[in-house]
Amino acid sequence: MKGTARFAIWGLALALGGASWAQVLRIGVVGPMAFVQGEHTWYGATLAAEELNRAGGVLVGNQRYRIELVRVDTNEMTSVTDAATAVERAITAQRVDFLIGGFRSEAVLAMTEVAADYKKPFLITGAGLDGILAGRVDRNYERFKYLFRVSPNKSSDLARTSLLLLGEVVQAVRRDLRIERPKVAILAERAAWADPLVETATRLIAAPPPQGYRAEVAGTWRPSATATDVTPELTAIQRAGAQVIFTVLSGPVGVPFGRDWGRLKIPAAAVGINVEAQQETWLKATDNLGAYVATLNTLAPAVAITPKTIPFISSFQARFKQFPIYTASGAYGALYILAEALNRAGTTAADAVVRALEATDYTGPAGRIVFDKTHDVIWGPGYTTGLGVQWIGGRMQAFWPRQWRVGNQTVSYAGVQPYQLPPWVVEAWRR
């Protein structure tokens, strides 16, 4: 229902059986709950809350707190106003103490204004726009110090990683198809977070090595994040003669893209960001037409980024019967980060908790989380970068990082396999 606030705010009391609790921490979990991006935020937070409560809750000073989650459906896919109103209602009517979540960057900008108004710490777990933190926390610290980003990496860092994945595919085109200067089409949803990725990709695709790829930009197409048909864009890309499609898709448009791309056998390999392709339901959702799609992901089956990766995936799958996307691992980590900060602070007072959050050094399922001066998660080897995954043989398979050289470091994970071009792309272009 557009134009009016639509709320689905449910309390989840995750208590130990028979335990006596003196205090309760009410944590608002915010997101578009009708979509997987919000649903997995809720699931990740739920898993962490259950684990923490089973272990005795959160020790703050000499008081032990039970975590109670409040489910806040923001309707942010369709209404920024609804999202801001939902967060305000969570604070004023549902009396939440802290906030985690958020997905659509335009909506998160509005939601975080509300959080700043009420001085409520907000750990963002789904929105990538640089400007959610940069230019706010650093320029108006007293107002925006309550904001932190656990995941994903900010858009400019997502551009770095997704362009590294693009580089793998461009190399495969050169090697296997013997096309020295491949044509790359950019397909990015119309959303604020995608804009810097489009700008960076446009510049670096054509730039010479080592910064660029010495390829050619075949054109840029910007469908709606909720489009149900991308056939016009894909046929235009085919006419443009592209061998590669660089995707920047976080919304539900990712599914029709994969379905139409596979149905039409577009002779261009798809790589970049496609959040819908991060789910284990990808092939079913695309009628088995999304094979060979490659995307940046946070996790991959059987790839241990840290000692916590595989246990988290196993617990999540056992509990929810799904493979976790990045909002799940982000929300899971955010709750643990908040719990550790509360323990260090010894109080629930917001300013003290902020100071404790600034000292975060937490290793979670997706990597090591440390915040920079703008309260953004640090990107790079030894911190968080994500993985490149591709749908091969009916399953998600990691293909990056594999012998990734950064300065004097080489980054690889066990289980990472070489990237494979789709066979119909090879057939169409092999010379």
From TrEMBL:
<protein>
    <submittedName>
        <fullName>ABC transporter substrate-binding protein</fullName>
    </submittedName>
</protein>
<dbReference type="InterPro" id="IPR051010">
    <property type="entry name" value="BCAA_transport"/>
</dbReference>
<dbReference type="Pfam" id="PF13458">
    <property type="entry name" value="Peripla_BP_6"/>
</dbReference>
<dbReference type="InterPro" id="IPR028081">
    <property type="entry name" value="Leu-bd"/>
</dbReference>
<keyword id="KW-0732">Signal</keyword>
<feature type="domain" description="Leucine-binding protein">
    <location>
        <begin position="31"/>
        <end position="375"/>
    </location>
</feature>
<comment type="similarity">
    <text>Belongs to the leucine-binding protein family.</text>
</comment>
<dbReference type="InterPro" id="IPR028082">
    <property type="entry name" value="Peripla_BP_I"/>
</dbReference>
